[in-house]
Amino acid sequence: MLSFSRPWRVFRWQATSQVHRHKKSLSSVPIQRYFGTRSQSKSRLTRDQAELREARRQIFNVEEHFKDYATSESYLTALRKAQRRLDALLINSRNEKVRAQLLRKYQHLIGDRELHVFYVDSVMYHLEGSTDKERELSGIPQLRQHLQDLQGETIFKERDHFITTRIPALIGSFMAWMESKKNEGAPEERRQLPDAHELELRHSVTTWADAMHAAFEKNIDHPLEHNTEEINRQCAKVANRWWVWPHPSVAAWVRHQGSHYTSIRGRRCWNTDLLRSFYEVTSRNWQVFHGQTERIFKALETNIISPWEAYEHQCRKLEAPVNFLTTLAARIHILILNVASAINAYRKGMSRIVLSYKQFGKLIWIGPVVSLVLLAVFFSFWANSKTGKGSHARRVKTLHSRVSSEAFVDDFRSRLSGDFDELITETSQAISDRLGREFGALRSDVDLMQKKQRSEFYETYYENHWKSVAQLHGVKAAIEKLVDDMNNLAAPAREMAQKQYALASPDNRPV
Domain DUF7605: where (predicted)? Predict the structure, then answer.
């Protein structure tokens, strides 16, 4: 065995300090996990405490028996391995605690959707000698993979939706046309299907938009209007506090549109300070508005999908052709997916309107009105006003007249309502367009089955009727083979996507 002199102790202390450089911030993290029942949490806590004690004991043993190591490299390797095991336990404990806190805070906003949380710490990623498993503790590989998957997941879902839903709808319509071509019977032999005119349902989309506007006006717009005087009074108090600052500080904030940072003042945002008054009014009604909109969306889904499903049920009772039922089921599935997509687009749009301000710790209504409406008039006046004696007083007067006027709140309401109206218009237009396309395709299929279009092709193709039918059967067989090949090729991709994108289940039903 080697005996180490004093210089080795110095080297040992330096190496240990490098490994321990972020230990202090991690060791203060509580170990308790916030998932499961009380008994489960207690069991986890006991197990985690035991693992931590064992990890610390390993570090202590390595440091106590450093003389037993043949070389400094072997000692340093053992010490790093023991330290990283402890770091991994502390990091995982911290991550689960943070995730539990975020879920408690934001679960009411995301509903049943998954909350993606990434814990990024570059220390473990860039630490010399880190293994791939240790780098994963930094959170950087997971975040990078998630960002790459965002585009890949969207493309995959779009292509898979085309194969499993839209192609069956097109093939079903083609087969229905073949069926009608093959059975050119007398009018009394024609299939009788329910009338589909009630499935247009554009009035349901209009009703939904009206209900959304009513909920917005009741919970957001009207409270802002009724509390205009109080908002003006509070904003004037906020503005008064800025003018006790030295003139250079005020000028610096104005030049940066009210949001700036200095070593003396720190980071301050005038717009955020003013928005506190608006927040006091809107925060009380946000939860109510959110609950109402979710109920309105559920009613919209029911009002659109239920009539189509009822129509499908009637057609099955009347023993409609299988091809017609296939394309009808595919079109219903398309509607379900597109309504859900429109709802998600609305929620994303709302997330751009409702921003989270750390100064408040809660949510407030604001949208892009922050710098464009609240203080834009004042900033413009400051830039164009003359300097000199009395200029500061004139600017103060202009600011007070701005934040104390009804136009100040009206501008906020106008911009906020405009953003909301635009979002509702985009959502309703997307639903109406898809509904119109599917309704038009269904009407065409029904008319074909009812032989309403018989005169358009019967006389023209009568002489070559049987020859055409034989050719179409060949086309049908080729299409069915092509569809089977596509499903066989898509099956591995669906299985991979289920794992990579955390999809609920691979949609590999045959078309």
Answer: 227-351
